Each structure stands twice: as structure tokens, then as C-alpha cells.
Automatic annotation (TrEMBL):
Subcellular location: Cytoplasm
Motif, Q motif: chain positions: 7-35
UniProt-annotated stretches for the region Disordered: 441-500, 576-632
Cellular component annotations (GO), alphabetically ordered: cytosol; ribosome
Keyword Nucleotide-binding: yes
Family membership: Belongs to the DEAD box helicase family. DeaD/CsdA subfamily.
Biased composition (Low complexity): 595-607
Name this polypeptide is given: ATP-dependent RNA helicase DeaD
Keyword ATP-binding: yes
TM segment ranges: none
GO MF, one annotated term: ATP hydrolysis activity
SMART domains in UniProt: DEXDc, HELICc
Length: 632
């Protein structure tokens, strides 16, 4: 436990290259879990940390462990175990970001569903850090392709989640493959007995840290989120500012640099805005807050640290332009509005990869965050017309207009023009800088993208669940339910109003594919909600799938490389002809996609299931499926 209050990362004995990365990123003050975890981890102590997801614990272990790396040694020195592939990717990306100034640093995420060949090549090349799910790490240990003899530190991230998913035995087996003198850091949101037992068996005199999350939000604050997709964040923010009835707004971003950049862009769009960050001297910060209080400013763009203690009654809205790094920061942010019984509005921008943090915030605050529809151009036009009419009403009620009436009467007599025509001309002149009628260019395409992103019926929970299920213990995943093989997947009602395009993919029945596999892969990799995926028809060695028209080029190219049931999709428009099979990807056994035909209605399938012992290292039982055709 630190004896002094840690208010800056520079107070911690981190490596200069790591401190430089922290400064580049714009982090200002360590979170409680970071302030308490970094010193003992730097000292090589084992650590048992209890903290909710979203409290900043990735940086809590990554920053000190990266500071201790031996970059000359190219075998894995740090192993991080995570319960899901999403978290493995997230942690690996964070590690790469924090190590940006470490020369020739390499981190490798390994998880099920990823190309094994790619992982093997990267392991052979040499990596300093491996971040993986227990199942795939055990797979590599069984193959002899992952060496743990040089592991200096093992991190168990979200240990209680690994316990819940049935991975705890695999975790202990992996621990037994590591050197006896290695350092262990175990993080868990809860501490059930099974996790305590693992800690007693494998941690030596650990430092225990418990972070209590202060996550009570104000009931008077309405919380909404917009999923970032299809529209640039700045354009989306501008649309929201157009239609929201606000007095003053505070917009939160992650870095000091972003405060100045966003304030400048909003100023260029006509909004009275200014930055508020830790690089500003105290006098300038106080002046900015005072301008916000007296109405000279309507929008302040701030970092978490700069906005602490900010209490301005005018603030009706808080917009999280960048999602916070932890749940406690979110609560502090939205607490800037909805004070003294007044109503407040909180809007959160969430990218597809940040869905996990959104769920963490909801769990921690015990309050739902409602999805919101991004305002359309028609919405903005209606709002501007409404404001224009209100401006006329206010002027008629409060202003002395006699001088202007004389001018209009004089003009009418001189030109013999009706009052309606004169009023129309004045309205045109009034709105030239801010047109009442917006052009509809690109509107249809934009709205289609937003529909995918903003559908209010559900977030991308299905894709995440699909990923999570694939990462579960094979015994649990294969034996928990009866396999089903529908011949085709009918499009759901929600997608019937979309223009669909039919694509061919090079995976079919003979590869063990089922519609749910195809839906899960496309939904996960394209960020597309499952109900936007149309009809799927399975053939022997290929399938067809209907997807919404207007797929972005980068998504199309990415989907061509996605793997399902051991096959690359090689997505192409369905023209009735097979896709060419690359020589390096050809399958053994003379498989010929061009000869595949749909199963006719005059055959039926009988499925026989028997349990057999797997030859894999875990020795668990799996289901062997035997199918026979018989004529009607």
C-alpha cells in the first residue's frame, strides 16, 4: 500500500519509455487500483486484487510489468490469461499502446477461432507478452509451441469469470507449467472460495488490494448511448447538438489534446465552446468555468481531471464523446448534471469494441442505458424550423418593431409586392448562414448504416455471446445441447424491409457448418446485428447468405478472410459459379465446390450421436455425429 497520495504517474517508478507513452496518451492521474497495484508489482510481489471490471486494472498490471521487461529476451516473459477472446484482444491492444516506445516489442493475443498458422508463425518469430484464453494456451502447450520456462509474471484477469465459465482447472494446469519463482497477479471482481483456494495454492505472501467502486448514479439523469458506426463521431455530435434542448453542455474526451481539437472544430461550426484540461494554468481554467456559468460559453470540452469538482447549474447535458476508462469515472462525469433535483441528460458514444465497458457501466450503476437513434437530416430540419418560428414569436412579444414595420410598408408601396413575398425573402436572408432546409445528399446511405448501429431492440449481445460460447470449455460447449442442422435459415421479420444482396461463402455441410456458425462469425467480424443477416442456404461444400446492400469495402475484404469450421469464407457475390480455390488452401480428398448441389426434398437425414474419447490433451468426451441419407 502506498504511504503517500499518488496524484501523478511520475510519482511511480515506471520506466521512462512507459511514462512517455502515458503522457502521449494523455492519462493524468492514476486510478485507485493503479495507484495501489503498481508499486508492489514493480517490486516483484504477488498480488491479489479485488476490483470491478472497468476500474483501470489493465493499466494497473500492464504498466509495471512492461517496465520490467527484458527486451533482449524474445521468449514470453509475461502471460496474461483472460476468459474471452474479446478481453484478450483488448488487453493485447492496451499492452501495445503502453509499449509504443519500447523498441522491437511484441505482444501476441492467442484465442480459439483465430488462424493457428498465424499464431505459430508469430510465436516462432518471438514475443515478449502472450495474452490468451485458457483453452488455446493449453492447446499450444500440448503442441509444444508455447514455452513458459522464461515466464516472469502470470496475470489472471477476471478470475471469477474464468471460474464461472469452467476454465479454473485449465488455469491451474497452466500455472503448473510456469516456473516456481514466477510472480502472480490475480484480479477478480468477486472472491468466491474457489478463487481464494487458487490464490492460497499459487500466490506467495500476496499484497491484497480491494477497491470499492463508488457507483451510485443520480436517478434524475436520463442516460442514453449511441453506437458509433456509419457516421463520423464529430458529425454525430453535431447532429445531437442540433436537436437537443440544452442550456450548457460538458463534453468529456480522453486526452488533453482532444479537448483543444474538438473545441476548435465546434467553434468552426458556430458553437461557443472552449477546452478545459490539466495543461491550462489555474487562472485560465477558472476563467473558462466562469464564462460557462455566466453564459458566455455553452460548451466545455474537458478531461476527467480538469472537470473534478466542477459545479455549474447551467449544465443540462453531459456527453461522453470518448468512453471513460472505468465505471467510477463515468459516474463522476455524469454527476456534473442533474444536481439539486434538476433533470439532466447523459449521452455516451460507444464503439463496437467498447460494448464490454457499456455493460460494465450498466452492471456497476445498476441502471440501464437506453440506445438512442441518431437524429436524421429531417429531424434537424424540423428542429431548425421550430426554432425559427419561436424566434419570430419571441421577437413579436418582446421587441419594439415599429421602425421595421415602416421599412416594410415603404418597400411594399414602392414595389407593389405582397407581404408574404417580403416575409419569405426576409426568412431566406435570415437563414442563409444556417439553412432551414438541409440537403438530402447521401441521406439514404447514411440512414441505412445508422439503422444497423442504432437499432433499439438489442445491442450486439448476440455476437459477443457467440464468441463467448466458442471460448467455453469444449466439454461444456459440446455436451450442453443437442446439435441441430436446419437446412436453411429463414430471414427474420426485421430484415424484410432492407435491400439484400446474396453472397457465396466456401463453407458447407461437409465442414460441419450450421447457420448459427455463419451468423455468429459474420455478426462478430462485421459488427452486424444478427437480425440484419438474411436467408442462409447450406449446400455440401458451400453456402449462400443474404446481407444488406451497401457493404463497406473494408468489411467485405475482411469477411473474405474470416474462418468458420476450419474454412475461410472467401465471400463473393453469388453468381452461380464457384469461387476459385487457392492452391495453398485446397482441401484434401478431392473436394469440389462446383459440383455441390442443394439437398433435395426427397431425402431426409438421420442423426446418430455417440460419445467418444477425444485424442486431445484434455481427454474429454465429445459427440461424434453420423448422418445417413434415406429415400422417401
Amino acid at each position: 500500500m502506498p504511504t503517500e497520495i499518488i496524484s501523478q504517474f511520475s510519482q511511480l517508478a515506471l520506466a521512462p519509455a512507459i511514462l512517455k507513452a502515458i503522457d502521449d496518451i494523455g492519462y493524468e492521474t492514476p486510478s485507485p487500483i493503479q495507484a495501489e497495484s503498481i508499486p508492489p508489482l514493480l517490486a516483484g510481489r504477488d498480488l491479489l486484487g479485488q476490483a470491478q471490471t472497468g476500474t483501470g486494472k489493465t493499466a494497473a498490471f500492464a504498466l509495471p510489468l512492461l517496465s520490467r521487461l527484458d527486451l533482449e529476451l524474445t521468449t514470453p516473459q509475461i502471460l496474461v490469461l483472460t476468459p474471452t477472446r474479446e478481453l484478450a484482444i483488448q488487453v493485447a491492444e492496451a499492452m501495445q499502446k503502453y509499449a509504443r516506445h519500447l523498441p522491437n516489442f511484441h505482444v501476441l493475443p492467442i484465442y480459439g477461432g483465430q488462424d493457428m498458422g498465424l499464431q505459430l508463425r508469430q510465436l516462432k518469430r518471438g514475443v515478449h507478452v502472450v495474452v490468451g484464453t485458457p483453452g488455446r494456451v493449453l492447446d499450444h502447450l500440448g503442441r509444444g509451441t508455447l514455452r513458459l520456462d522464461q515466464i516472469a509474471t502470470l496475470v489472471l484477469d477476471e478470475a471469477d469469470e474464468m471460474l464461472r465459465m469452467g476454465f479454473i482447472d485449465d488455469v491451474e494446469e497452466i500455472l503448473n507449467h510456469t516456473p516456481s519463482e514466477r510472480q502472480v497477479a490475480l484480479f477478480s471482481a468477486t472472491m468466491p472460495d474457489a478463487i481464494r483456494q487458487v490464490a492460497r495454492r499459487h500466490l506467495k505472501d500476496p499484497v491484497e488490494i480491494r477497491i470499492q467502486a463508488k457507483t451510485v448514479t443520480v436517478a434524475s439523469i436520463t442516460q442514453r448511448y449511441w453506437q458509433v458506426s456509419g457516421v463520423h463521431k464529430l458529425d454525430a455530435l453535431t447532429r445531437i447538438l442540433e436537436v437537443e434542448d440544452f442550456d450548457a453542455i460538458i463534453i468529456f474526451v480522453r486526452t488533453k489534446t482532444a479537448t483543444a481539437e474538438l473545441a476548435e472544430k465546434l467553434e468552426a461550426r458556430g458553437y461557443a465552446s472552449a477546452p478545459l484540461n490539466g495543461d491550462m494554468n489555474q487562472s485560465l481554467r477558472e476563467k473558462t468555468v466562469e464564462r460557462l456559468k455566466n453564459g458566455a460559453l455553452d460548451i466545455v470540452i474537458a478531461t476527467d481531471v480538469a472537470a473534478r469538482g466542477l459545479n455549474v447549474e447551467r449544465i443540462t447535458h453531459v456527453i461522453n464523446y470518448d468512453i471513460p476508462t472505468d465505471t467510477e469515472a463515468y459516474v463522476h462525469r455524469i454527476g456534473r448534471t442533474g444536481r439539486a433535483g434538476r433533470k439532466g441528460e447523459a449521452i455516451l458514444f460507444v464503439s463496437p469494441r467498447e460494448q464490454r465497458m457499456l455493460r460494465d457501466i450498466e452492471r456497476a450503476t445498476r441502471q440501464p442505458i437506453t440506445p438512442m437513434q441518431l437524429p436524421s437530416h429531417e429531424d434537424i430540419t424540423d428542429k431548425r424550423i421550430s426554432q425559427f418560428k419561436q424566434a419570430i414569436t419571441d421577437a413579436l412579444a418582446a421587441e419594439e418593431l415599429g421602425f421595421f414595420e415602416d421599412i416594410i410598408n415603404s418597400y411594399q408601396q414602392e414595389h407593389d409586392i405582397g407581404l408574404n413575398e417580403i416575409a419569405s425573402a426576409l426568412a431566406f436572408l435570415f437563414q442563409r448562414e444556417r439553412p432551414l432546409l438541409l440537403p438530402k445528399v447521401e441521406e439514404k446511405h447514411s440512414r441505412e448504416k445508422e439503422t444497423i448501429a442504432d437499432d433499439s431492440s438489442r445491442r450486439t449481445r448476440a455476437p459477443r455471446n457467440s464468441r463467448q460460447k466458442e471460448e467455453r470449455d469444449p466439454r461444456e460447449a459440446r455436451e450442453s445441447r443437442e446439435p441441430r442442422e436446419p437446412r436453411e435459415r429463414k430471414p427474420r421479420q426485421e430484415s424484410s424491409n432492407e435491400d439484400m444482396v446474396r453472397y457465396r461463402i466456401e463453407v458447407g455441410r461437409t465442414h460441419g457448418a450450421q447457420p448459427k456458425h455463419i451468423v455468429g462469425a459474420i455478426a462478430n467480424e462485421a459488427g452486424l446485428e444478427s437480425h440484419h443477416i438474411g436467408q442462409i442456404k447450406l449446400y455440401d461444400t458451400y453456402s449462400t447468405v443474404d446481407l444488406p446492400e451497401g457493404m463497406p469495402k473494408d468489411v467485405f475484404q475482411h469477411l473474405q478472410k474470416v474462418w468458420v469450421c476450419g474454412q475461410q469464407l472467401r465471400l463473393v457475390l453469388d453468381t452461380g459459379t464457384p469461387a476459385p480455390v487457392p492452391a495453398s488452401k485446397g482441401k484434401s480428398g478431392g473436394e469440389r465446390a462446383s459440383s455441390s448441389k442443394p439437398r433435395t426434398a426427397k431425402t431426409s437425414t438421420t442423426t446418430e450421436k455417440t460419445r467418444v474419447k477425444s485424442s486431445g490433451s484434455s481427454g474429454h468426451e465429445t459427440l461424434r455425429i453420423k448422418r445417413t441419407k434415406k429415400a422417401d
